[in-house]
User: Fold these one by one.
Assistant:
Number 1:
Amino acid sequence: MKKINGLIFIFIIFLNASIVLAEDISGIDISHLWISEAPPTVSVLVAYVTLKNNTTKTASLVSVSSPLFSSIEIHRSIVKDEVASMERHLSLTIPAKSTIKLLPGDYHLMLFNPKTPLEIGDKPTLTFTFSNGVKILVKAQVKKRKYRKH
Amino acid sequence: MLTKLSNSKFLIPAMVALIILAAGTGFYISLKQSQNQLVQNNELRGLFWPNPKQIKNFSAKDHNGNAFELSNISGKWSFIFFGYTNCPDICPITMSVMANVYQHLANYYENIQIIFVTVDPERDTTEKLSSYISFFDQDFVGLSGEPTIENSLTRQIGIPYYYNMKKENNNYLVDHSASIFVIDPKTRLIAKLSPPHQPEKIIEQFKNIKRFIDEKD
């Protein structure tokens, strides 16, 4: 019994160590990834996300991809002199030890030509690629937008 | 009494106190007045008055393919927003805000109408618009092909819009007005609501505009 307890203890230590190791490799946390529910006929969807850079080096998001969409681009909505426009960004810089939030009406991910319409509860996976070659796979949540009827 | 008071050692401090009180009251009243003026100006921000544009007849098609003309906006308060369905951020934000505004105002008024005009008629077909409109609210009206017709609302209101990167691919973007325009039941272009849009702000602005127009007419 004592031996088994010891084994379990060692196993737990090993498990914890491996989790820490996994975090250390990328040093980037990707959270709150959600896609706004949209009419089934639209050709462009939008995703919002929070990117946290825990490292002491600047990180740069260079691409986001998913087999579900023909392409994904980083855009920013701008309202200037009451005219709305969008500018495309080829990369997104996340300074060392800081957090960047992509939110409605600002920076966002444009998801072009969904292969199938997405519904509430769907959890498609998006791949985030950084300039140092690190790839992070994250599941997105399909959710209703604020002010939408429940 | 007066002589008694004038002899009193409290006379000077009492007079000073009285002067301070009077000056303070005057200052408070003038501050209140200027605050009221400010509130009033803020509430009626965006109003095209005293010379609102009278909308002329036009003949468009709605998202069900039915005729939509001047008679369809006559006798109603219409909120008009210009956008396109491939705009995934600003347009659905505004549509969701308007859905919320509509749900609220429809409880109090019978003649409220929300109209979405696409500035991308090439890609936004009637079918596409129909699905887009009903997603936000079944009662909304969508107008496709509107900017190109004679006397279109787009032209009469004077909406700026231009294509961005159109030659490169079919994923082109359209820059467009982010304001919401209000046409009154006498089909006068009465107000422009500027972004950023929030339901509470629009409801409050509308109530003030309606009260102002009801008093004037």
Number 2:
Amino acid sequence: MANSFEQRTNIKRSAASIVKHLILLMGIVVVAFPFLWILSTSLKEASEVFTSSPQLIPSRLHFSNYSEVFFYIPFCRMYLNSIIVAVIVTISQMFTSALAAYTFARLRFPGRDAMFYGYLALMMLPVQVKLIPSFLLLKWLGMIDTYWALTLPWLAGPFSVFFLRQSFLDIPQSLIDAARIDGAKHFRIIFRIVVPLTKNMFLTLGIFTFMWSWNMFLWPLVMTQAAEMQTLPVGLARFKSQMGAEWQIMMAATVMVVAPVITIFFLAQKRFIQGIVLTGLKS
Amino acid sequence: MNALKKIKKRFWTEDSRAAYISLLPSVIVFLVFIAFPFFYSLFLSFHKWAILTPDKPFVGLANYRDLFLSRDFWNAVINTIKYSAGVIPGTTLVSLGLALLLHRGIRARNLFRTIYFLPVVTSMVVVSILWAWIFDSNYGFFNYFLSFIGIEGPAWLYDPRWAMVAIIITSIWKHAGYFMVIFLAGLHGIPEVFYECAEIDGATPFKKLMFITLPLLGRVTALVMVMLTIESFKVFSIIYVMTGGGPLKSTETIVNYLYRQGFESFQMGYSSAIAWVLFVFILIITLLQIRFIGGRRKAIGQQL
């Protein structure tokens, strides 16, 4: 009696588990299929793209879509722009945030807490509000269509400061005191003791900042007019509005934009997810 | 003299000197690129300025009056609400569902989580272009797929009635993985003991879901919905790339309207007024969040 009851619940459980797995697998198809579809379209000839019964596997691989991208837009230059902007912004934000976070976590000075909460309040100022005045300011400074316009406003940001301060607070004060007694200055302590101890945090925030900068759209859209100064997302969007119907070429460009991001993501996916949990946790 | 020394003693210690130097780069960036634009846009919103003409006369609240009398502005507000009405519940349900399914007893859980996360790391522009292609009215995959189940799909992005639906589907696809991770963190924070006690009392899985999991996820759910509300009201890229606000302005949202007024019609004062209306709205939502839900850390639990 007891045995058959157990058996029944077991069957029920494994049935539920199968249903669960099936739904999740369907979810995988919904997520992964569009990515396969980009790849498939990018390798097709026009005649196979514009048909009422499209196939996932192209009958013949057609790589010339990829070379055509370079004909329509200065793709290499845009790639370079995206890399330059993301690298400058990421390195600078990590540096300025380390300094600011240490200051808020470990130094005593008048007005410290008020300043810190000011930082946090600024976190919520949406970029849309400052878009027009920033554009006017950068235009007045003659910086539109330069790397200055794309990087200067983002060289420091409150986002990383908050999380770095939290992890700096976890470092035992005795460690810092010991270094102070040995005569180390604050800057030495930051870069020789505090930063190495919180390396993982820096990696996570660094990847996150890089991804954010790489995907930034509204800002570079407003601050650049020349194709030579545009970053990849802006270049792609302009390409779409000009060449709306050439889907196979656009998909080739898209593959080249997405491939490195997905590769980095698979290599460092734990850090990405950690980053998301962090941003979800910011209070 | 004595007072001066006192001030010096207080504000010029070794710590405070280091602090001033460390904060200098951040403070400069904030003054120039956050504080100044913030107040300057308020200043601009009281002036009429079409960038091409040099003079910008003070017009008081005229920009705000024009705004509230403008049919296009209300159209943008309604479209933003439509977008939010689809995206907020849609994304919450899908991401909560995925998190509940993934939470326990799943083989290769990390693999699932990784793949669901892919759209999150993909740039919004790429996602928008990709889905614009899938929703293409003639050769898109979506209508091809629908034709198998005997449905003749609409023209999606070219149909004012369906364009927003296509955008909402795309947005849910892009963001569900992000909020799934937040829900998973919340689920992780529910003590196992509750389920064990319920099991002893003979609770069915459904009852456990209804009386333990969902109530205890209340704060996280509220948090997710607040985040989605703020993000929805700032929506821009997906619409700019997929439809450009069309057809017939049927998908033009507040920020798209702001962009059109600011950078296509060059009405700097008027679009600053739009920006400030948006800002006040987001401020209210954020204050309500702090008042009723508390910090995000509190919402998800301390253990992370």
